[in-house]
Fold this protein.
Amino acid sequence: MSEPLRHPEKAHRPDNPVSRKPSWIRVKAPTSPEYRATQRLMRELKLNTVCEEAACPNIGECWKQKHATVMILGSVCTRACAFCNVATGRPDQLDPHEPQHVAEAAARLGLSHIVVTSVDRDDLADGGAEHFVRTIRAIRELAPATTIEVLTPDFLKKEGAIEAVAAARPDIYNHNLETVPRLYAEVRPGARYFHSLRLLDRVKDLDPALFTKSGIMVGLGEDKAEVLQVMDDLRAARVDFLTIGQYLQPTPKHHAVERFVTPEEFETYRALAFGKGFLMVSASPLTRSSYFAGEDFARLRAARAETFAAL
């Protein structure tokens, strides 16, 4: 019997040859004992990680340091974004024990900071918001010293979902724009650029003290002016932290890499973003939302403290 198709909605897309990566992007295969130990713990607790599902290039480095980004609400997404390697199809049943297992992982790994993300669950009445809330509460109870970053879906047409997650008071609320508005129809067809912006702005309305974060990929066909406009839009939404990383094509069925942005260009974006008022910026070819998230969060808090001290 043949294996089920991982991306049924992507099957009808024409193949795009996967470009050879430049030297500044190639990484070594993960082999460390710490990586294996983290992998065993994730399997023991029956947890999904975006590190594995999205084929993150930093998995070896992060798991060696026992840093894993947990992906709740199952491993199957209800959307079929052209950039994403997470499986699309009929969603999994919710695991009622998952929030407790995430908290156990945080405690057993001794995490100072945890990133909790999810697939999109358009099939659920609240988009999975209550599951995020239960996960935040479980971590607070079992690993009270761990700071919590949530990277949520857009909760499109899910009334009260954003409010519920924000009220649970994670330490940082992250929602990625992913790309420039012109490319949404082909890259992120199930989402709406201005809805995502409103989500981030709404979080600040609900709790001005809550850090907000968003990220985009480059190399999808955007130009510099469009990236700078996204920065301006995010600052207008009062976003504190911006991440910019290189898009890497997972398979021939995914959106092609239009070009590899050089490290020098990333440094230019980083400088421009700080100039626009972001408190924290991470911009490099291998930057991902959760890459060095704990260290960056510590810098973010320090930056806010310095800003208030200067007033």
The longest strand covers residues 211-218. Confidence is low (pLDDT under 50) at residues 1-6. Residues 17-310 form a domain with the TIM Barrel fold (CATH 3.20.20.70). The radius of gyration is 18 Å.
